[in-house]
Amino acid sequence: MSTHRIAVLPGDGIGVDVTAEALKVLRRIEKKFGHSFRLEEYAVGGALIDRKGVPIDAETLHGCKKADAILYGAVGGPRWDSRPLGQTPLSAILTMRKELDCFANLRPVKLYPALAEASPLKRRIVDRGVDILIIRELTGGLYYSRGRGRDGEGPARRAYDTMEYSLREIERVVRFGFQAALGRRRRLTSIDKENVLETSKFWRETVEAVAPQFPEVRVSHLLVDAAAMRLITDPDTFDVIVTENTFGDILSDEAAVLAGSIGMLPSASLGEGCPGLYEPIHGSAPDIAGKGIANPIAAILTVAMMLQHSFGMPSEARAIEQAVEAVLTRGGRTRDIASGQPGEKMLTTVEMGEAIAGEI
Ligand code: IPM
Ligand code: MG
C-alpha cells in the first residue's frame, strides 16, 4: 500500500474550522477504502506572521513542494489587514501558486437540486441545471504583473499594474480547458475582453490556434461583460469556461451564487509537475470563525477533487460527493445554505462534517 503525503495548511479564520472537517472525511475514506495518507501540517498566513513575522517561509514552501498534494484552508483577518501588499496573509497563497506553478485553477460550479431554493435565481432558470467548470489561469496576468508600482509627486502621483501574457502561458491553460471539455459535454467557452485589450486579442488568437487539435470540442468566445450577464440569465449554456486570472476570479465568485453559497465551491490548482493545490474558494471569514456556523462542504469537496486529480481515486471522490448530496437531500444545512424550507435541519460546522463522514 503506497502512502500519500499531504501537506495540510489550515491557515486562519474558518480555514481552521473547515479543514478539520475535511480531514475527518479524508480519514473516513482512508479507513473505508484501505488507503494510507500521511498528513504534515504547516503554518501559513496570519498564523505564520504571528510566529515568524512572514506569511510564508521556506519551511512551509519546502513542505508543500515535497508533498503529493496540498490541502489549504484560507488566510487573513483584520489583525493583519494594514500590512503592505506582498506582506499580507493573502500574499502567501499568491506566492504558493506561483512557486509551485499551479497554473490551471479548476472551479466546478454545481447546484445540488436540494439547494435550488438557496440559489437566488428563479426556479425556471436553475431548474435547467447548473454544472459548469471554470478554469481560471492562475499564475499570470494582472495578478503577477512585472510592471507594478507607484511614482510621481502631488496630483501627479500614480499607481499602475500591467497585464501581460506569453503564448506559452495561454496555450497550456487553454489546452487544459480543451482536455477538460473532452471529459464533459465537449463545449468550451473562452472568455476575454478582445474588443479592448491586446492581451485578450492574443488570448483569442491562441484559442483559435489550439482548437484544431481538439475537433470534437465546440469552442466559442464571449466577452467578459456579456459572460457575467449570461452566467445569471442562462447558466445552462455553459460547460467548460477558460479565462484569464482576474476575469476568472470575478466570474467564479459570481458563479458561486448559482450554487447557493460560496461555501459550496471547491477548487483544484494543477499544472505539470505541481503537486495539486486544493482550496475551497471562500476566504477566512474572520467574523464567523470559531462560531460553528461555517459551511465545511467546500473544503470537503476539495478533498474529493484531491482524490480524483492527485491520487487517481475516482470512486473515493464519488463517495464523498454522494455523501454530500445525501446529507443535503435529507435536509442537512449550515446557515449559509438554509432557505427556511420545511424539512431543513440546521447543523453546526462539526455536525455537518460528521454527517458527511458518517454517510460514507
Ligand atoms: C480566490 C481569492 C484569492 C484570489 C485571494 C484571496 C488572493 O479571491 O482564490 O479567488 O484573488 O485569487
Ligand atoms: Mg476570489
Question: How would you portray this structure in words?
Answer:
With about 350 residues, the chain is α/β, with parallel strands linked by helices. It has twelve helices and 14 strands. The mean pLDDT is about 95. The longest helix has 20 residues, at about 15-35. It starts with a strand and ends with a helix. The protein folds into two domains: about 1-100 and about 265-360, Isopropylmalate Dehydrogenase, CATH 3.40.718; about 120-150 and about 160-260, Isopropylmalate Dehydrogenase, CATH 3.40.718. The chain has helices spanning about 15-35, 45-50, 60-65, 90-100, 125, 165-180, 200-210, 225-235, 245-260, 295-310, 315-330, 350-360; strands at about 5-10, 35-40, 70-75, 105-110, 130-135, 150, 160, 185-190, 220-225, 240-245, 270, 275-280, 330-335, 345. The strands form three sheets. Strands 2-1-3-12-11-4-5-10-8-9 form a ten-stranded mixed β-sheet, sandwiched between helices. Magnesium ion binds near residues 249 and 253. 3-isopropylmalic acid binds next to helix 4.
Structural class comes to: alpha/beta
Query: Within the largest sheet, what's the order of strands?
Result: 2-1-3-12-11-4-5-10-8-9
**Range of helix content:** 40-55%
CATH class of the largest domain: Alpha Beta
- In the CATH hierarchy, what is the architecture of the largest domain at level 2? 3-Layer(aba) Sandwich
What is the assigned CATH homologous superfamily of the largest domain?
Isopropylmalate Dehydrogenase
Instruction: Report the span from N to C terminus.
Output: 21 Å
